[in-house]
Design brief:
Elements (H helix, E strand, L loop, with lengths): L3 E6 L2 E6 L10 E8 L2 E7 L3 E7 L6 E9 L1 E8 L5 E7 L5 E5 L4 E3 L7 E8 L2 E8 L2 E6 L1
Antiparallel strand pairs: 1-2, 3-4, 4-5, 5-6, 7-8, 8-9, 9-10, 11-12, 12-13
């Protein structure tokens, strides 16, 4: 199996080989975030989430302390200083949680039946989006 990515060039689209994500072949990359310093992606297994980083979208490696046990990460934000914020539901119990790689985790102020949709940067700072009883709600992270 070969992993590829599409890259837009002035002359059009081209395929490029991707390395470092071979261990995710049986899992889904559930979310992706990027900025000028590169990219970060999350892959969920039955035990938790593993985060991967790439400076260019083709060569990937696991993030130091990027093994997040008992989390199903659905939103990640790559900060300007290289930090990584994430939002997730706990695999055991589905609690709404957020954290920064290397700095632990904490609950999110949403109802306990909230299902994470994602995270975005806004003028107000980082926000997470959650589905609660068919409604989309936001919470700061």
């Amino acid at each position: 199996m070969r992993t590829i990515a599409a890259r837009r060039l002035p002359s059009g689209w081209t395929e490029i080989p991707v390395t470092g994500l071979e261990q995710t072949a049986e899992h889904a990359i559930t979310t992706l975030s990027g900025n000028r310093s590169g990219w970060v992606a999350a892959a969920i297994t039955q035990d938790g989430t593993t985060l991967y980083r790439s400076p260019d979208g083709s060569a990937w490696s696991t993030v130091d302390r990027g093994q997040l046990e008992d989390t199903a990460v659905q939103g990640i934000l790559l900060e300007g200083n290289g930090g990584i914020r994430w939002v997730a539901n706990a695999i055991g119990g589905s609690a709404a949680i957020t954290g920064t790689v290397g700095a632990g985790r904490q609950p999110v102020a949403v109802p306990e039946n909230a299902h994470v949709v994602g995270a975005v940067w806004t003028r107000r700072g980082p926000l997470s989006y959650w589905l609660v009883d068919g409604r989309l709600v936001t919470a700061g992270i």
